[in-house]
Amino acid sequence: MINLQAKIKRDIDSHALMSCTELENQLASIDFKALSRYGDDDVNEPAYTVENGVATIDVRGLLVPETSSDYRSWGVTGYANLADYIQQANDDYAVTSIVLDIDSGGGYVAGLDGITETIYQSAKPIETFVSGDAYSAAYWLAASTSKITASKKSGIGSIGVYGDHAEKSKALEDAGIKIKRFRSGRWKGAFNWFTPLSAEEETRLQDGINESASIFFNYVAAQRNIDVKTIQGWEGDDFSAAKAKELGLIDAIADSVAVSSSTKQSNNNPEEYDLNELEKAQAEIAALKADKVKDEQAIADAKAAALVAQNALAASQSATRQADIDKLATDTGRTFTDEQVTAFKAMDEAQFATSVVLATPVAPKAPELPDGLDKAQATNGREGGESKIMAAVAAAKAQGAK
Q1: Of 210, 244, 273, which residue constitutes the final position of a domain?
Q2: Which of 153, 217, 250, 299 has the most CB atoms less than 10 A away?
Q3: Does residue 105 share a domain with residue 50?
Q4: Which pLDDT band, with edges at 50, 70 and 90, does 265 fall under?
Q5: pLDDT of residue 401
Q6: How far from each other are the two terminal CA atoms of the chain, in whole angstroms?
């Protein structure tokens, strides 16, 4: 089994980006010694519970990319494990919708893109009920769902990212130890723990934090329809459930995740929640997704029909061109090679018409006779026209002699 505690420590020392509040307290609350004795065979907890068609998936404690077993009861939830539970609920015929029951201070940034994509791709609607807190990465998860309801004692927010760097040069100095690192470039072996960070190293770490935080801010802004500058202006602050509702971070406040058609809500009372509205919203989401599937199928059918028509037209044009090529071969008495036939078929109508003219031999034609010159004159001057001309010449001479 992976030593989870050692892995988390290694990641923190390697400047893993965290979207988390009170990380030290979360780590202190996890009994890692007990987890080290906790094997896969000890996992008996279901991925979720189902009531009235609603699958409730618990999200508890520190959020990490994945765990080798289900450690949620121990205060650790893996993103990859959570994605598996959502997929199981999607495959469960008894489940019509899914609720993430969140009580977490957040955790790793790494792995969030995968679980948020799973939530987005879910065929069954997913919403969030915050039974405890939803801070940082935990709120990132909540914001990915269609609706967020929180208990009135919940804490919400802490939207931001950080990374830690442990520098122990002073402790080494006090112990009489001095480490000198030789490296091939300024980024080789950078960010080490035994020398103070350079200005460039600090800038690079901060740039990474700012980039990840900007993604978080813009994501929440898009999901919750809040101005991104407003979110950035909160500077990672957290809020009570009532304040979070006022700010638009959650949709409603309730005391329970249970879905019941008999539960009523007054929109003016933040301590009550109309779960009928949840059912309506879930039905609307399901209908929209069904319409999307129908539209996508209609588009696919239209594209398929267009392709069939296109192929039929191409086949018809090919057959017509082949007939024209065969006629040209007959008319000219020529035999065309495969390359010539291929070239003919690739031509448009105008190009092929020109090729037909060039390939067809021209029959010889006698020149037309000038005006006043009859056929006998042109073909046999001595027998016809020439004798008359000579006689005329002779008469002219005789007349001149007189």
Answers
A1: 273
A2: 250
A3: yes
A4: very low
A5: 54
A6: 145
